[in-house]
Specification:
Order of helices and strands: HHHEHHHEHEEEEEHEHEHHHHHH
Radius of gyration: 23 Å
Organism: Wuchereria bancrofti
Helix content: 40-55%
Number of strands: 9
Structural class: alpha/beta
CATH topology of the domain at 61-302: Amidase signature (AS) enzymes
Keywords: Membrane, Transmembrane, Transmembrane helix
Protein name: Amidase domain-containing protein
Oligomer: single chain
């Protein structure tokens, strides 16, 4: 009874807010355009005085081959897993000082594992069934991979960008990590995320801000921004990402066990998903097969013939809301004009999809469910402390908790 009453109250509150927003939308639109114009002008001015650093293209040819090609070359002993892992370690050391993408290095264990793989391959008879079945049993044998700091790995820290978790060590592998290891992949490093994985830039008080490899003055996005920056900088060839709003939507058959935070009470079966990230499109298929496992792969019918002529592509040119900046004019001109009516309510759809009665609030997840920040006076004090060095949360996430 209480739960239904809360749902009714929440529904009425949402409807009231939507009505107010619709009424004041013209005013908000004017204010929004003025605001975004001022912000763009301000940062254009600021960027003029800041040094721009661009990550240079990799010189080592081992960094320019796909994971699929690398695995095949390792099996055929044209290259060694050790040399490939070593090349990526050198690249990470070269670029990470600029982009701050890697927050935990697993280099020593990765080199040991790569050496073991090379020795195992050297002992196999190329005419044996064990060798011939490697491509099926271990399709990523010897290939290094990275993952974001929200996916558990046995023996490594998993902070999710939360200061309360900076000393938390996982005691098990996430299912997707175990499947990658079973496929022969070698874990190389862990990459940065926003606090609680809930923001569109990867910044937290534990590891700081991840920067864009094409312009160090800018952000790299989120919540898989560390992974995206590292892969873009050729510091990794394949990685594991996740989303809660659609940025990595397709692999819905990949298990979530081992992903933090544990959003109990939220609609995680549809809203929180794990998926592949890579530099070369040909690696997507093999990664999805590994992530989903045999059962998920069969459900996807990945080997079934596909007619490209019947494929439909959906795109949109923006949202009819004053809360977001207008789409870039160059991007707008590159697309045909389209106006699906329902997508302009994407924010309302998202919030409604996430909402479940009695679920822990975002402010609780900011403390790893160890303390309560749900009272507004406490949250406002958190905002104040976020302005100083002794803060435990970023200012943006503190404001998000209040909202």
């Amino acid at each position: 009874m209480k739960q239904n009453r809360r749902k009714n109250i929440a529904g009425r509150t949402t409807n009231m807010l939507v009505t107010v927003m619709k009424t004041l939308k013209p005013l908000f639109t004017v204010i929004s355009r003025i605001y975004f114009t001022l912000v763009c002008c301000f940062f254009t001015f600021i960027y003029h005085f800041l040094s721009r650093k661009v990550i240079s293209a990799p010189r080592d040819k081992l960094l320019t081959i796909s994971a699929t090609q690398a695995a095949q070359m390792i099996r055929n002993r044209k290259i060694t897993s050790f040399s490939l892992v070593e090349a990526y370690i050198k690249r990470i050391k070269e670029v990470n000082g600029t982009i701050n993408a890697v927050v935990q290095m697993n280099f020593k264990d990765a080199l040991i594992k790569a050496q073991e793989i090379d020795e195992m391959l050297g002992s196999l008879d190329t005419d044996s069934e064990d060798f011939k079945s490697l491509a099926v049993r271990k399709p990523l044998l010897g290939v290094p991979f990275t993952l974001k700091d929200s996916i558990e790995v046995d023996g490594l820290y998993c902070t999710v960008g939360i200061s309360y978790r900076k000393k938390s060590v996982s005691n098990k592998d996430a299912i997707v990590v175990q499947r990658m290891k079973d496929a022969g992949a070698v874990l190389l490093a862990v990459t940065n995320v926003p606090e609680v994985c809930m923001w569109w830039e990867s910044v937290n008080v534990v590891y700081g801000r991840t920067r864009n490899p094409y312009d160090s003055r800018r952000i790299s996005g989120g919540s898989s921004g560390g992974e995206a920056a590292l892969i873009s900088a050729a510091g990794s060839v394949i990685g594991i990402g996740s989303d809660i709003a659609g940025s990595i939507r397709m692999p819905c058959l990949v298990p979530l066990e081992g992903h933090l935070p544990h959003l109990n009470g939220y609609r995680t079966e549809k809203m929180l998903l794990i998926g592949p990230m890579c530099r070369y499109a040909e690696d997507l298929s093999i990664l999805l097969r590994v992530f989903a496992g045999s059962e998920g792969t069969n459900l996807l019918q990945m080997d079934a013939p596909f007619n490209m002529k019947k494929m439909r592509i959906f795109y949109m040119e923006g949202l009819k809301t004053p809360l977001v900046q207008d789409v870039n004019k160059e991007a707008l001109q590159a697309l045909k004009k389209e106006n699906p009516p329902l997508v302009h309510y994407a924010l309302e759809f998202f919030l409604t999809s996430m909402d479940v009665a009695d679920a822990p609030k975002f402010a609780m997840h900011m403390t790893d469910l160890k303390a309560s920040l749900i009272f507004r006076p406490i949250l406002f004090s958190v905002v104040i402390t976020s302005l100083f060095r002794f803060r435990k949360h970023t200012l943006l996430h503190s404001f998000t908790a209040i909202v």
